[in-house]
Design a protein that fits this description.
The complex is a heterodimer of chains A (82) and B (711). Chain A is α+β, with helices and mostly antiparallel strands and 82 residues long. Chain A has three helices and five strands; from the N terminus they run H-E-H-E-E-E-H-E. The chains are: A alpha+beta (82), B alpha/beta (711).
Chain lengths: 82, 711
């Protein structure tokens, strides 16, 4: 499932491997982007995948070294990385 | 300086330490209620500000508003924040807003600050969690921050209570200002927004641009605006072609652009910053695909062991104490109706209440510890995918686990679920979680049929049986959620997005306070109902229509002339009860419950417990002490063991009957308060009635099945 997405479009948070880092570039969903912005996920901010829940979903990311955010794979998929 | 009462509202991001600060400021002087007009729980409290000589200077009423990341609500709970802050006529509209900010994540926390600042309400910024910031090598310069933000900034530590004096001083100073400083907006409206803003300001007599923008964006959430007013605002939005979604995203980004340089000036970072080491370490275990579930299961098992095994010692003492007290009063007072009412009616009823204090105290304390420590958020993460399969959300775990204590507050916590669909499903199935009121029933019935043996050396067989019943409730809840999800259409997308707080040691004072509050409300609220029903029941069971009871007695005496006196007494008592009002009532419904294995006596208890299930045991106590041999006072359990089935001559409470009763109480929705809260939360009778019906079918069906199979 992840492979397909990787081929067609940009790197997103949902494709990060455990421990891997990325820098937020943009969001692909408007309603979701507001929530993410309010929770401190800003373009230019570094994120790192910290933990994956059992069954692979949701995931926990570290946002800007500041705090830990848990989100579902489909939510993580709207965050595009540079 | 403003005299008398100062109103202060507390706002902040979730996990910024808002409720800790609330507790630090108000201590025991707090109460819970509802915000007027809405059913959002309102925590308010009071504190005093002393002057330089230590005399009382001002009396402050502090209101704790729901935690939120921005003033744009994402759940029902959060709408209350702007409903108050945009309406100066609201009784809770504050003189000062204290914004609690997590200093270790200042940038995000300041977003909410700038929004509230722009509303033009005087604010004080309380910088909390500086110790966490320090451990992440961050140094926050509060003076620099105060200069840049143009508000008082106070360094506090809500957990230890440091900085409370400074915070109170700052509040006093802001209230005492004779001249309001000119407002510096953090968000400057764009060219194309100004026309709309001015028109809204004129219509609604507002003097603040940002409040006007809130009228535009949030008027559907404002309870103080009538429907025609809302429609007019919609027309204005149309007229100016205002795109709300676009505006919200642009506004938030514009705010962060203002905040970034402020934070980089005020916060010095030395080296890498990280969440505390042990939080990451613990997460790798507690979120692990195997160990995560193992830990969760163990935590639950410990909870049930605690409720059942540890609580049994104080409970046995209370039980014996009550029996002794009743016996003493029986002997001390002159025999007669009054004596019977006090001992068999009131004291038996009260005994049925206070015996459960240990269990309820332990249960509420453990739930509080799980929430306080930050573990509950991890449970939501590991359960989300599973919950989603049943149409629920990871967040549904909190109502479901709190439901183990009591369904009423549990259903109120569903307001944090932003999707209406998931919230409704959670409300519908939460009453299936076995609440503390079911414990009395489970405890007694398990004690009758499950031996008190040890398994694997540490686990008590009865504890495991109890665990099984709770598990059955949980499975019932998940199954019902899945079943109901087939019929309820889903309208909006589902979100999870949850901040993971770092692990903390619970504040024991707060855990103790929660425990005290829950026991108090159980004893007072449930106690009132139980006692009233016990007395009514005693009257109904002691008197019958006309002369029926005496007639029944004479018939028994006449037919049993040769039997020993003891047997005659027992038969007489039983015959009298049977011909009483309560007995006739029980007889009337007996055909309906006969297939479940219940007789008319259980029927009386069943009917009485429709108001509240915890009444069941108290009722049994009253019924069996009236019909039983009055010579010695027995505990409820002993009475039930002695109870004979008049048809077979064997025990009345056979395993089949006990298990059937257990099934019935696992599923039945016998609680007026829950029905009332579901009515309130879903705004109508449709859902509580559907809930009542499906749970009744489930309860009757499973009890029927179990009894027919076992007997």
């Amino acid at each position: 499932m992840n492979l397909n997405k990787e081929r067609m479009s940009a790197r997103t948070v949902s494709l990060l491997k455990k421990g891997e880092k990325g820098i937020i570039k943009s969001f692909t969903d408007r309603a979701m982007s507001l929530k993410l912005l309010e929770m401190g996920c800003l373009p230019g901010c570094e994120v790192r995948l910290d933990a994956i829940a059992p069954f692979g979903d949701p995931i926990c990311i570290n946002v800007g070294g500041n705090y830990s955010l848990s989100l579902r794979l489909n939510e993580a998929a709207v965050i595009e990385l540079e | 300086m403003k005299q008398g009462n100062i109103k202060v509202a507390l706002v902040g991001n979730p996990n910024a330490g808002k409720s800790t600060l609330f507790n630090a400021l108000t201590g025991m002087r707090q109460k819970t209620g509802n915000f007027p007009g809405v059913t959002v729980e309102k925590k308010s409290g009071t504190f005093r500000i002393a002057d330089a000589n230590g005399h009382d200077d001002a009396h402050v009423t502090l209101v704790d508003l729901p935690g939120t990341y921005s003033i744009y609500p994402k759940s029902k709970d959060e709408t209350v924040v702007m409903d108050i802050l945009a309406n100066p006529q609201h009784p809770d509209f504050p003189d000062v807003v204290v914004i609690v900010a997590d200093a270790s994540n200042l940038q995000r926390n300041l977003l909410l600050f700038t929004e509230i600042n722009d509303l033009g309400i005087p604010t004080v910024l309380a910088l909390n969690m500086l110790d966490v910031a320090e451990s992440m090598n961050l140094t926050v310069n509060a003076v620099q921050l105060a200069m840049q933000l143009n508000v008082p900034v106070v360094r506090i530590n809500a957990r230890t209570g440091e900085g409370m004096k400074g915070l109170k001083e700052a509040v006093k100073q802001v209230v005492g200002r004779t001249e309001k400083p000119a407002l510096r907006y953090f968000y400057e409206p764009k060219e194309n927004e100004i026309g709309l803003i001015n028109e809204v300001k004129e219509i609604h007599h507002l003097d603040n641009d940002y409040v006007a923008l809130q009228y535009v964006c949030q008027h559907d959430n404002f309870s103080f605006l009538e429907q025609p007013v809302r429609a007019k605002l919609d027309a204005l939005i149309e007229k100016y072609g205002f795109d709300e979604n676009n505006f919200l995203a642009n506004e938030t980004i514009a705010r962060y652009e203002k905040i970034k340089p402020i934070v980089s000036k005020a916060v010095k970072s030395e080296g890498a910053t990280e969440q505390p080491y042990w939080t990451r370490k613990l997460d790798s275990i507690l979120l692990h695909r195997v160990w995560g579930y193992v830990t969760f299961a163990l935590v639950l098992l410990v909870v049930f062991q605690a409720i059942f095994a540890w609580a049994s010692y104080p409970m046995d003492m209370i039980d014996a104490g009550t029996a002794a007290a009743i016996e003493w009063v029986k002997g001390a007072l002159p025999a007669g109706v009054l004596n019977d009412l006090i001992t068999d009616g009131i004291m038996a009823g009260i005994g049925g209440i206070i015996i459960f204090i240990p269990q309820i105290a332990i249960l509420f304390a453990l739930v509080a510890i799980l929430e306080e420590s930050g573990y509950m958020a991890r449970v939501m993460v590991i359960m989300d995918k599973l919950m989603r399969r049943f149409g629920l959300n990871g967040r549904s775990v909190v109502p479901l686990i709190s439901g183990v204590a009591c369904a009423v507050p549990a259903i109120m916590t569903t307001r944090s679920i932003s999707s209406r669909y998931e919230r409704l499903l959670t409300i519908m199935v939460t009453p299936l979680m076995s609440c503390s009121a079911r414990l009395p029933i489970f405890t007694i019935l398990i004690a009758l049929v499950v031996p008190e043996t040890k398994v694997l050396g540490i686990f008590n067989m009865q504890g495991i049986a109890l665990f099984g019943l709770y598990l059955l409730g949980l499975l019932g809840a998940l199954g019902s959620a899945w079943f109901l999800s087939l019929f309820i259409p889903r309208r909006e997308p589902s979100y999870f997005m949850l901040e993971m707080p770092s692990y903390k040691l619970p504040r024991w004072g707060h855990v103790g306070f929660t425990m005290y509050e829950s026991v108090k409300s159980f004893v007072l609220e449930a106690g009132k109902v139980i006692m009233a029903i016990s007395i009514i029941l005693w009257v109904l069971a002691s008197y019958g229509p006309g002369d029926s009871m005496n007639v029944a007695e004479q018939q028994v005496v006449a037919s049993m002339t040769t039997a020993p006196q003891e047997e005659i007494d027992a038969a007489v008592a039983s015959a009298r009860l049977e011909s009483s009002y309560a007995g006739q009532f029980g007889r009337f419904i007996e055909p309906a419950i006969r297939p479940l294995g219940y007789d008319w006596k259980i029927g009386i208890a069943l009917l009485a417990s429709f108001a509240a299930r915890e009444v069941f045991v108290g009722t049994m106590a009253t019924i069996y002490s009236i019909s039983g041999d009055t010579e010695d006072v027995l505990t409820v359990k002993q009475r039930l063991i002695q109870e004979k089935n008049p048809e077979t001559g064997g025990q009345m409470f056979t395993p089949a009957v006990c298990y059937s009763l257990l099934m019935f109480y696992v599923f039945a929705m016998m609680c007026m308060s829950t029905i009332a809260v579901v009515y309130r939360e879903t705004h109508g009778w449709k859902w509580p009635m559907i809930q009542l019906a499906y749970l009744m079918v489930l309860a009757y069906g499973s009890a029927f099945l179990v009894y027919q199979v076992l007997s």
